[in-house]
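pinned: reference chain
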Amino acid sequence: MDRNEKKTILHICNYAALYRGNFIESLESLEVYHSNLQNIYLFPTKTKNTAAEKWICQMNQQQKVAYIQEKNYLKKLLQFRKIVKKHKVDYIVRHFSDLRIDLIIKFFFNSKKVIRFFHGGYKVRSLLKHRLKKYLWKHNQMVGVSDAIAKEVQQAFPGFPVVSIVNAIQFSRLEAGEPITKSEGISLLMMGWDYHRKGVDLAIKAVRSLQKKYHITLQIVGGINEDAIKEMVMQIVGEEPAWIRYLPDTNNVGTYYYANDIFLSPSRREAFGYANVEAAFCKNSIVLSRVDGQAELQIEGAHWFESENLEEFQSCLETAILELNTPEKIAQKERVRKQVQKTYSLKTWSGKVAELLK
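pinned: its C-alpha cells
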C-alpha cells in the first residue's frame, strides 16, 4: 500500500522511562500488524534531557517523533497545528493528560477521532477540573488497560464510551541478554521502584519469617529508589541482611526472571501488572496480591492472597516453595508460558485498538 494511503495516528505521550518497555512496543505493533496505519509520537521537549532521550532519538531517525513545548499556550497551539497538518493526522491517541492540549483538540480538531487511554486509575480530586474534563473529553473513546480501570473510568464519566483493552507484552524482548548466574537455594524476585505501592515491606517481612526453614534470597529491582529501600530494610530487619540483594534497572529484564524461581507481587495497587505476565512466561512461580487490575490476570497456578494480609502471603509463598520442583508444577509452567503468550500478545492488543480506529 502506498504510504499516502495510510492513516496516521498521533500518539500524545509524556513518557520518559529509561527503556521503551511494553508501552512503546505495543504502540509500534499497530504498524507491524496493520499496514494501513502509521504512528507519529509527540513528546514534551523536557524529555530531551531525560533517560529516555537515547531511544526517542533512535525513533526520530525514522522521522516518527515530534516535540512540543510545555508552558506557553499560544506556542503550543501553533506547534500542535503545524504537527497535525505536516503529518496529515487522522487519529489522536491520548496516553497522558494535558488540559492545554485537550483545549486545543476540542476547539481546533474536534472533527478528529480521539482515543484516550487510562494507564492508571481515575480519581476526582478537583470537582471543577473534573467538570472541565467532562466537557473537553465528550465524544472521546475511553480505554482502560484493565477491566478495573475501565470500570473506574465509566463511573467517573457515565454515558461516555468506555472499553477495556488489556495491556500486551513484547515477549521477544524477554529472550535478550546474556544469562546471569542464579543464586544458591531458592531465589525470589520483585520489582520495587515504587516500593510502598509494590509492597516491598511486606515481601521483606514474609521472607524473613521463612528464613529459618529455607535458604532464600530476595532480589529487588529498586531503580532510583534503591537507597530508600535499603533504609526500609534497616527499619524492618535492623541490619543489612545477606539474603537481600539489589538489582539495577535493565532492558534485558528476562535475564532476571530466568535467574529466579518465584516472582513476588504483594502490591497494594496495580493498574495491570506487566511483570507478573513476564515472569510467568519465563517460568517463574507467581505469588501475588488480589488487588484490582492485577486480580484479573489469567495465570494458571498463581498463588493469590488478600492485599496486606501478611500471614496469607507467607502461607502462599511457602506453598510455592514446596511445590517448586514437582513434575506437576514444571509441566504447568510450560502450559502457562504458552497461555500468557497467546492471551497478552501484541497482535491481539493491536487488533482491538485498530477496531476502535475504524
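why pinned: The first helix runs from residue 21 to 33. Residues 91 and 112 are 6 Å apart (CA to CA).
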